[in-house]
């Protein structure tokens, strides 16, 4: 027993209490985005209905209140990640923007032709394409660490590919397509032995487990607020202060400077240096509410509850004839991908939707993972804190229906 009161959790999500195609909704698409608890809806609504104004520049009351609420989220994120300082918390639009920022501000200036950037074979497109763009511009090379049939990375394969040309390592913490929890502590240790900085793509770890950037030892950690039960369009880049301090800005504009003249501009200190323009004010405030809400539940309990669901789903879905689970790693979180002998993943998704069961079918923005297994797509059920074993039973009953329809 995880100690989590799931009924009480579910009661806080208005969207879950509806019928889809006449059946009670079972939402199993949390890998794509999570639903929002009342605390987040209220935080956003309260911002817009009582104190919204632009931040940082105003002396008037509303601007000061908005600034205070917005800036307070840095402290929330600091606690959420156990970061040494809230000045290391940069607000972004999400994981994608965080990776692009690090690629362009931190990595790009040090790249020479022939340098190498190391990623794994199970990255999300957002941790592939920014590096390819950099490689195209600089003549650097993208080096890819393979993974096993089970969907696991062997640190020895990482060690083998770390060379004197490796300038940066960027790794997915938890795979959105396979659910694998990667051996990131080991990967970070190997990289740091060679003084190579490491970014963790935490889009799929932050919602599901306690994250401690100091214990992990990474240099950058990025995640998306919309997957941690907050609004979309707000996310976090955490980076070691010394690294942020040495980085030039990526976006130029208002709110990121000390002084501007036509001769030259002096940039603000981090994190403001990286936050040009008016941010998603209510979105960041809502993200803070989501993180506070998750921390109040307890990430340990969340992880234990979801681990139980995933193990149960593995057993039950894996026992169905004609169903093959893609990704059978020993350590997994969040997601269960599968294919069926006869039915295409899109057919599976459509039939499940008819039963009110929302899953995702497709390549999950990880086409190289699909290529690795020689399949075009998978069906993916991904879990959140409000899911139950009943949800898994509904999933299984519906997959069984697909099986019988296509048999
Ligand atoms: N990385 C991973 C592992 C993801 O799952 C996602 C979202 N599916 C992203 C990156 C991109 O996140 P966002 O679209 O919020 O920028």
From TrEMBL:
Its EC number is 2.8.1.7. The keyword Transferase applies. Belongs to the class-V pyridoxal-phosphate-dependent aminotransferase family. Csd subfamily. Keywords: Lyase, Pyridoxal phosphate, Transferase. Catalyzes the removal of elemental sulfur and selenium atoms from L-cysteine, L-cystine, L-selenocysteine, and L-selenocystine to produce L-alanine. GO terms for molecular function: cysteine desulfurase activity; lyase activity; pyridoxal phosphate binding. It catalyses: (sulfur carrier)-H + L-cysteine = (sulfur carrier)-SH + L-alanine. SUPFAM superfamilies: PLP-dependent transferases. This is Cysteine desulfurase. Pfam families: Aminotran_5. GO terms for biological process: cysteine metabolic process. Residues 26-395 form the Aminotransferase class V domain. Its cofactor is pyridoxal 5'-phosphate.
């Amino acid at each position: 027993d995880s100690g989590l009161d799931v009924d009480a959790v579910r009661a806080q999500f208005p969207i879950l209490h509806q019928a889809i195609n006449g059946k009670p909704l079972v939402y199993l698409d949390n890998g794509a985005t999570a639903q929002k608890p009342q605390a987040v809806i209220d935080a956003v609504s309260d911002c817009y209905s009582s104190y919204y104004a632009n931040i940082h520049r105003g002396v008037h009351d509303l601007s000061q209140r908005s600034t205070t609420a917005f800036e307070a989220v840095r402290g929330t994120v600091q606690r959420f990640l156990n970061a040494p300082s809230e000045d290391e918390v940069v607000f972004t639009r999400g994981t994608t923007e965080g990776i692009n920022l690090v690629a362009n501000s931190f990595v790009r200036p040090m790249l020479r032709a022939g340098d190498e950037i190391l990623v794994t074979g199970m990255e999300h497109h957002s941790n592939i394409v920014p590096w390819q763009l950099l490689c195209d511009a600089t003549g650097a090379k993208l080096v890819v660490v393979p993974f096993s049939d089970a969907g696991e990375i062997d640190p020895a394969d990482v060690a083998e590919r770390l060379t004197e040309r490796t300038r940066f390592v960027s790794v997915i913490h938890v795979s959105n397509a396979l659910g694998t929890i990667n051996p990131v502590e080991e990967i970070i240790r190997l990289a740091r032995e060679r003084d190579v900085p490491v970014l963790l793509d935490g889009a799929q770890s932050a919602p599901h487990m306690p994250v401690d950037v100091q214990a992990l030892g990474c240099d950058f950690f990025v995640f998306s607020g919309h997957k941690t039960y907050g609004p979309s369009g707000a996310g976090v880049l955490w980076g070691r202060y010394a690294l942020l301090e040495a980085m030039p800005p990526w976006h130029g504009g208002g709110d990121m400077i000390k002084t501007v003249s036509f001769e030259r501009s002096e940039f603000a200190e981090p994190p403001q240096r990286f936050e040009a323009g008016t941010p998603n004010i209510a979105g960041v405030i809502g993200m803070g509410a989501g993180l506070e809400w998750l921390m109040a539940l307890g990430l340990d309990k969340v992880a234990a509850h979801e681990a139980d669901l995933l193990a149960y789903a593995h057993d039950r879905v894996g026992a169905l004839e004609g169903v093959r689970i893609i990704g059978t790693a020993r350590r997994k979180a969040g997601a269960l991908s599968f294919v069926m002998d006869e039915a295409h993943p899109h057919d599976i998704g459509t039939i499940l939707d008819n039963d009110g069961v929302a899953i995702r079918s497709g390549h999950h923005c990880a086409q190289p993972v699909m290529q690795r297994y020689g399949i075009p797509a998978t069906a993916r059920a991904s879990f959140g804190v409000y899911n139950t074993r009943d949800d898994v039973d509904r999933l299984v009953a519906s997959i069984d229906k697909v099986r019988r329809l296509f048999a």
